[in-house]
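Query structure, 290 tokens:
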């Protein structure tokens, strides 16, 4: 793999704090995308006592060549105790904001919507002050499943577009750019109160013009929050990095996003969809949707 530039160096975590979070997760038999997807910010987030919970996993029904989540294992039946265990973890970690995401479960009739709903409801029961963000797959375009998730009233509905349309066949072969945009458009049509969010990776061969077009497309469906981060190759078997994007370019995208009217743009080499997600609480106070 190509040598990473200096701006992609991550501070060594304080492993005692990381160990405490991991101990709670192991005790409650929970998965996190932080670990399963080899996120470079795992140390910082675990030190802060935050985690992005990965439900219905860790086996995925899709094989996106950029992602480090396992797609070779057979997906297991849903566990009815998972929402209760997740809620207990939110309580023990005393989270102000929780992100709940999942693998793709195209084998399920509702794409896993019911499990998202159960996790939202269980969390609300034990920790009503915690704001809830769901980072969902495209549900294969099932907007009735999307409507059901929104009916549980998450505070933030996040769905990543991941890359530019030209690269979808190579980067996200089982996804569709237009379907992802439609999901965000439908979310806004179905709910005026939820904050919508999306994220893209760069460094896969896209151009600046293409990135800006995606940003414009997202604002066109009234997306509130955008994250832009550098793609990092998890292993030799995954897609290679085409380019390491300089921090100054990320700043230019952030400035352009603010010009377009996003409520928040988080754009830096180490930004990931859930990185500093807890800051949305302050955003909601500044820009109440209702």
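Result returned for the query:
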């Amino acid at each position: 793999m190509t040598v990473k530039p200096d701006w992609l160096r991550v501070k060594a975590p304080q492993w005692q704090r990381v160990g405490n979070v991991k101990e709670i997760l192991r005790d409650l038999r929970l998965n996190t995308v932080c670990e399963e997807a080899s996120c470079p910010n795992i140390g910082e987030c675990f030190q802060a006592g935050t985690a992005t919970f990965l439900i219905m996993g860790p086996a995925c029904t899709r094989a996106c060549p950029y992602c480090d989540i396992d797609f070779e294992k057979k997906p297991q039946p849903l566990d009815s105790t998972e929402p209760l265990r997740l809620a207990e973890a939110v309580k023990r970690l005393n989270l102000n904001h929780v992100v709940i995401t999942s693998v793709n479960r195209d084998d399920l009739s509702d794409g896993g919507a019911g499990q998202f709903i159960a996790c939202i409801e269980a969390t609300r029961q034990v920790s009503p002050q915690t704001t809830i963000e769901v980072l969902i797959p495209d549900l294969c375009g099932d907007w009735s499943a999307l409507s059901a998730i929104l009916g549980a009233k998450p505070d933030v509905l996040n769905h990543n577009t991941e890359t530019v349309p030209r690269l979808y066949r190579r980067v996200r072969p089982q996804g569709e750019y237009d379907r992802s945009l439609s999901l965000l458009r439908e979310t806004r049509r179905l709910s005026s109160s939820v904050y919508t969010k999306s994220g893209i990776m760069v460094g896969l061969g896209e151009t600046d013009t293409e990135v800006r077009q995606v940003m414009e497309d997202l604002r066109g469906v009234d997306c509130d929050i955008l994250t832009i981060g550098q793609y990092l190759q998890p292993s030799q078997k995954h897609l290679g990095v085409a380019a390491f994007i300089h921090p100054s370019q990320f700043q230019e995208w952030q400035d352009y996003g603010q010009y377009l009217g996003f409520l928040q743009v988080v754009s830096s080499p180490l930004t990931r969809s859930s990185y500093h997600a807890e800051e949305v609480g302050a955003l909601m106070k500044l820009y109440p949707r209702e």
